[in-house]
Amino acid sequence: MTENNTTDQLDYHKQKKKEEMKQQVITFVLMIVFTIIAFAMVQSDLDALFVIPIILVLAAIQVGFQLYYFMHMSHKGHELPALMFYGGVFTAFLCIIALAVLVWW
Question: How far, in Å, CA of 101 to CA of 49, rounded?
């Protein structure tokens, strides 16, 4: 019974690792495509008011991919580091907004 249980656990972990690797490869390919899109938009003669927001959105998506898939923020046991990171991002965002308001006021 324990041999069968161990084999089942091993098969489960192999399948889980395989799915994780598949997600990482897909994410990596998407990040390369986003980078190519950003370079192509910069090389084209499009209006900067159109290009810059799209590049910023693509960059934000890539940061999300990096954190979620490559830094393993989605895994169990990484809740505290994720909380600390997101808290720091929120604090930085508030500081930037506060400084922008002070400069423009």
Answer: 22
Region label for 72, one of left (φ > 0), alpha (ψ between -120 and 50) or beta (otherwise): left
b/e 71-90 (16+ beta carbons within 10 angstroms → b)? eebeeeeeeeebeeeeeeee
Hey, what are 45's tokens? 């003669």
pTM attached to this predicted model = 0.68
pLDDT in tens, the chain (105 residues): 566 778 888 888 899 889 888 988 998 999 999 999 999 999 998 898 999 999 999 999 998 888 887 777 777 787 888 888 889 989 999 999 999 999 988
Q: Which two tokens stand for residue 59?
A: 């960059």
Tokens (6 digits) for 19: 């799915």
CA 16, distance to chain mean position in Å, is: 20
- Report d(CA 23, CA 70) in Å as an integer: 10
Q: At residue 83, what is the residue type? A: L
Count of CB atoms within 10 A of residue 65's CB?
19
